[in-house]
Amino acid sequence: MKRILTALVLGLAAQGASASEDDIRKVRAAGDVAATMDALESAVTGAGATVFARVDHTSGAAGVDMDLAPSQLLIFGNPMLGTPAMQANPLAGLYLPLKVLVYEDMQGQVWLAYEDPEETLDDLNGIDDDAAYIARMRGALGNLTATAAGG
Fold it and tell me: In CATH terms, is domain 24-149 a member of 3.90.79.10?
């Protein structure tokens, strides 16, 4: 019986891990990580949003003598998009502002990646999957990453 329960728990844990990765949207980029991140930051500010931070994961790793393929995270937001979600449930503030990761995979391909806002906020009470602000966040992320991806 203990083996069956262990197998069930492990199976459910594995299922949860694969489901969350399915919620991540990836866009192939034409440039390197730095140029793609520059293009993303420019697109974000050009759209009237605020960039709160640009995190260089590779530099962080180098600071502790570890190697990491080029990887940067942009944290940005627009109160017109995020405030309605936080009005519906203040805990949405744990997941906002929005984030986009630009990274190089093991084959040398550069990607922009972000979690679908519907999935990010899905488990919060009061957040409607069909809310206009979710559609606007999804549209903004799609447009910004497509612009930054280039060619």
Answer: no
